[in-house]
Design goal:
alpha/beta, P-loop_NTPase, transferase, Sulfotransferase, EC 2.8.2.-, binds 3'-phosphate-adenosine-5'-diphosphate, Sulfotransferase_dom, 17 helices, three-stranded antiparallel β-sheet, 340 residues
């Protein structure tokens, strides 16, 4: 994307029309076009909406933060580029997945390496209704990944605390109590939230055109990664050949992109991305239902009611909260503790 500037006075005028920011763990969020945009990224969002031109062969990876974006970046990059790099020369061995697959909202940012893949693979946390028109209107394909929102919430909690030097406006401010953050999350106040609208937006787009939008679930990938590697390849129009399958390429990609492998690579153990975020903070536990170690049964009950009230009548309720609700029953006898 050519580097242009988004006029400062337009942003200033827009901000006059929006409510003052609401703070999520010290990070200002503004309600813009029905979603909670991090204030620090609003300018980039507007820039992207105005100038980004999707190409028909682009691959867009979309998600609510902390739903498995890093994993999906690694998988998509390896699948699309499997004839370009052998497994032992794959750039994932020496680069964090976020350095190989840029975020749409950060493309214009200084220091962004741009695209190193053809077709281009670009990630975004922007809700479907707010992505640039050309993404909706072109033939580009979108892969959406969702995750049990309670795990998403706990993952985000760790991530934002570990990187508060990047996201928090007042860096010395004390951490939010877990229950305060949870209260906001249940109201939909979370970066790029409400999560229910985010999921519904992409889900409805998938129903309307399943060839354009593939809807994946983190928990399903954890259950059978080989199956989903093949599904992604088919969706992108580059299915594995019989020969590739015989050679075990699907399993090799699964292993390369596994949590254990990526977490233990030198490049992901230390250091920072160009935006100041700790590389290691993208690889915490990679588990399903970790929320049960942090949230009380009462909190989970409250969450269940929120899910029903927001998603009732849509299959998304079943798809995204089925595991949350089942695990609520499983975890209800567990002892629990607060994160702080
Ligand atoms: P992002 O939205 O900031 O890019 P994202 O990658 O979506 O973050 O989410 C990070 C979560 O995915 C972390 O979950 P946790 O906090 O519950 O542990 C991270 O551990 C997990 N994750 C990262 N890479 C993988 C992987 N290869 N396999 C499974 N889970 C992974």
């Amino acid at each position: 994307m050519e580097k242009k500037d988004y006029p400062k006075d337009e942003i200033h005028e827009l901000l006059q029309t929006l409510d003052p920011p609401t703070y999520y763990d010290g990070s200002p969020l503004v309600k813009y076009n029905d979603f909670w945009s991090p204030l620090q990224f609003l300018r980039r969002l507007l820039y992207t909406q105005r100038y980004f031109e999707a190409k028909d062969d682009d691959v867009i990876l979309a998600s609510v933060p902390k739903s498995g974006t890093t994993w999906l970046k690694a998988l998509s990059f390896s699948i699309v580029n499997r004839t370009v790099y052998t497994i032992d020369q794959n750039p994932l061995l020496t680069c964090n997945p976020h350095a190989l697959v840029p975020f749409l909202e950060h493309l214009q940012h200084e220091g962004n390496p741009g695209f190193i893949s053809t077709p281009r693979i670009i990630a975004t946390h922007i809700p479907f209704n707010n992505v640039p028109d050309s993404i909706r209107e072109s033939k580009c394909r979108i892969i959406y990944i969702c995750r049990n929102p309670l795990d998403q919430f706990i993952s985000g909690r760790h991530f934002y605390q570990e990187n508060n030097h990047v996201f928090r406006e007042n860096k010395v401010e004390k951490d939010f109590e877990l229950c305060e953050a949870f209260d906001l999350f249940c109201q939909g106040i979370y970066p790029y939230g409400p999560f229910w609208d985010h999921m519904l937006g992409y889900w409805n787009a998938h129903l309307k055109n399943p060839e354009k939008v593939l809807f994946l679930k983190y928990e399903d990938l954890k259950g059978d990664i080989a199956l989903y590697i093949k599904k992604i390849a088919e969706f992108l129009g580059c299915p594995f050949s019989v020969e590739e399958e015989k050679q075990g390429l699907v399993e090799e990609i699964a292993k390369l992109c596994s949590f254990e492998n990526l977490k233990n690579l030198e490049v992901n153990k230390s250091g920072y991305l160009s935006n100041g975020v700790k590389s290691s903070s993208f690889f915490r536990k990679g588990e399903v239902r970790d929320w049960g170690n942090y949230l009380s049964p009462a909190m989970a009950q409250r969450f269940q009611k929120v899910m029903y009230s927001k998603l009732e009548g849509s299959e998304v309720l079943w798809i995204t909260s089925h595991s949350a609700i089942l695990s609520l029953q499983k975890n209800s006898k567990k002892t629990w503790r607060h994160l702080n």
